[in-house]
């Protein structure tokens, strides 16, 4: 199988690292060679965080270059736009339609480009946008946005059963948070 590439992008503290750990664990369990690379930036101060997940028969490098991502999972609209150049032709961005103001917006040096997803769609980018925060809250905690987005991503992997995703959640999430995360995943998948 050719190497497939998934980027998980967001802002520090949103749970993108758990999402990449879950995805990497699941794909390893499916028998793929998997490479995961994390770039934290200023993650502890609300800065951009990107994780690369590459899998296939043989993966030599964990890095995804421009035009190579099959999927970008974005926790925030502006991060989707920031990384859209990495998407391959025919690739798809799965995005939480919430806005998290970056530092220049907070300080008043810039304004948030509210029409950023519409602009990407007009350029032909395939966007699957959703209100992941509302679904996470419905599951029991706003912190489960990551699992809602993983649930949505799972819809693009029909060859991997929902049971296998649930097993990966059980193996990657602290026991006291497993049920909430399973519920968040199921809501995102639905």
| Overall shape | globular
Number of helical runs? 8
Return the structural class.
alpha/beta
Low-confidence stretches: none
> What is the CATH fold-level name?
Pyruvate-ferredoxin Oxidoreductase, domain 3
What order do the strands of the largest sheet run in, or round the barrel if closed?
2-3-1-4-5-6
Helix proportion? 25-40%
Q: What oligomeric state do the depicted chains represent?
A: single chain
Please report the total strand number as a whole number.
6
As for the number of domains, it is 1
Keywords:
six-stranded mixed sheet; 190 residues; 6 strands; 8 helices; single chain; Pyruvate-ferredoxin Oxidoreductase, domain 3; 38% helix; alpha/beta
Structure overview:
The protein is α/β, with parallel strands linked by helices and 190 residues long. The chain has one domain (4-189): Pyruvate-ferredoxin oxidoreductase, PFOR, domain III (Pyruvate-ferredoxin Oxidoreductase, domain 3, 3-Layer(aba) Sandwich). The chain has eight helices and six strands; from the N terminus they run βαβββαβααβαααα. The chain has helices at 16-29, 77-83, 103-106, 116-122, 132-139, 145-154, 162-172, 178-189, and strands at residues 4-11, 33-39, 48-56, 69-74, 87-96, 126-130. A six-stranded mixed β-sheet has the order 2-3-1-4-5-6, with helices on both faces. Strand 4 (69-74), helix 2 and strand 5 (87-96) form a beta-alpha-beta unit.
